Amino acid sequence: MTVACPTRLDAALDALASDPGAHVLAGGTDLMVEVNHGGRRPAAVVAVSRVAELREWALEDDGTLRIGAGVTYTDLMQGRLAALAPGLAEAARTVGSPQIRNAGTIGGNLGTASPAGDTLPVLAALDAEVELASAAGPRRLSIEDFITGPKRTARREGELITAVRLAPAAARDTQEYLKVGTRNAMVIAVASCAVVVQPAARRVRVGMGSVGPRPLRANDAEAWAHEHVDWERGEVDDPDEFGRLVAAAALPIDDHRSTEAYRRHAVGVLGRRGLVRGVRALRDAAA
Ligand SMILES: Cc1cc2nc3c(=O)[nH]c(=O)nc-3n(C[C@H](O)[C@H](O)[C@H](O)COP(=O)(O)OP(=O)(O)OC[C@H]3O[C@@H](n4cnc5c(N)ncnc54)[C@H](O)[C@@H]3O)c2cc1C
Questions:
Q1: With contact defined as beta carbons under 8 Å apart, do 106 and 76 qualify?
Q2: At what angle do helices 260-286 and 239-249 cross, to 10 degrees?
Q3: CA of 16 to the centre of ligand 1 (A)
Q4: Exposure winner among 192, 221, 270, 282, fewest CB in 10 A?
C-alpha cells in the first residue's frame, strides 16, 4: 500500500490526479474501521489531515459560511463557529467520544454518507452545498445531489471534498438537533431530526436522519409551520400536527438497529420537540 501525506491542497489534488482510485483518509474513524474489519484493502491512500487549507473555516464576503472538510467535530463545537452554526455544534456534541470528535471530520461524515451521519440532517435543513475539487477544477453540489443513496455519493474518482458552504445562523434563528439511539452517548442514531427556526423569514426547515436512504426534508411540515407558528407570541398552535407531518415524510426501514414503525414514531416526536424548543427560545429571547 502506498500512502501520500501532502501538507498542501494542490499537492493533495496532484496525488489524487496521479492515482484517482486512491482512498482519501481524513480522521480515519470510518475508513480505518473498515480496513481493520477487512472491508477495504486500499492499494493507495492520500492522507489529508495535514492539509492546513482543509482545516480552515471562514465567513466569506457574500455572507456564506465556508467550513473546510477537515474541520473536526471538536472544532465545530467551539467558539464563534459554534455560534454561526449552532445546529452543527449540537450534532457534533452527539458524535462518538472525545477521541472520535477530535479526529472525525465533517468531510469524512459527508464522504461516508451514512444515513445515520449526524451532521447530514443539519446540512440538509440548511440547504448546504458541498464543494469538491480535482485536477480538473472545482465544482459545487447541493447536499441532495451529493448524497445519492445509503453510503453513496456523487463524488468522482480523483475528487476531494474541500468544504461545505451554508448560510450562518441569523441573530434570532434557532437550530435544534435531536437524536434517538439505544443509549445516551457513543451511539449511532436510530432517528435524528434537525429543526431550524428562522423568524425573519417566518420559516421552519426540517432535516431528518436515519429514517431514509439519505437525509430527508419534511416539506409539508415546513409549509404547515409557516402558517401555524405565531411568530409574534412565540407559540405553535398544534405541535402534534407538526410531528405527524414530520413522521409522514420519513421513509424508514426495519434493520438491526430499529423497526420502521419505531423510527417513524421517534422522528415525529423529535420534530415536534425541536419545533417547540426552537419557538419557545424565540419567546424567551423576546421576554
Ligand atoms: C467509535 C465510533 C463512534 C462513532 N460515532 C459516530 C456518531 O455518533 N455519529 C456519526 O455521524 N458518526 C460516528 N462515527 C463515524 C465517524 O466518526 C464519522 O462519520 C466521521 O465524520 C468520519 O470522519 P473521518 O474524518 O474520520 O473520515 P475517514 O474515516 O477518514 O473517511 C471516511 C470516508 O470519507 C472519505 N473522505 C474523508 N475525507 C474526505 C475528503 N476531504 N474528500 C473526499 N473523501 C473524503 C474517505 O475516503 C472515507 O470513504 C463513529 C465512528 C466510530 C469509530
A1: yes
A2: 140
A3: 19
A4: 282
Pairwise CA distance, residues 156 & 12, whole Å: 15
Q: How confident is the model over 150-208, as pLDDT tens digits?
A: 999 999 999 999 999 999 999 999 999 999 998 888 889 999 999 999 999 999 999 99
Cα pseudo-dihedral 4, 153, 259, 264, rounded to 10: 130
- Interatomic CA distance for residues 10 and 176, integer angstroms: 37
Which one of 8, 23, 24 would you pick to mutate in the ligand 1 pocket, going by the greatest count of ligand atoms within 8 A of its CB? 24
Residue 95, ligand 1, Cβ within 6 A: yes
- pTM as predicted: 0.97
Nearest to 199 by CA among 178, 219, 170: 170
Ligand 1 pocket mutation pick from 95, 102, 183 by most atoms within 8 angstroms of CB:
95
Contact indicator for 249, 220 with CB cutoff of 8 Å: yes
What is the length of the chain? 287
- Structure confidence at residue 202 (pLDDT): 95
Question: Which of helix, strand or coil describes residue 73?
Answer: helix
Read off the C-alpha cell for 285: 429571547
Among 231, 230, 208, which Cα is nearest to 218's?
208
Q: Is the CB of 207 under 6 A from ligand 1?
A: no
List the beta bridge partners of residue 24.
46
Residue type at position 216 = L
Residue 101's contacts (CB-CB under 8 Å, 6 or more residues apart) are 72, 73, 74, 77, 92, 95
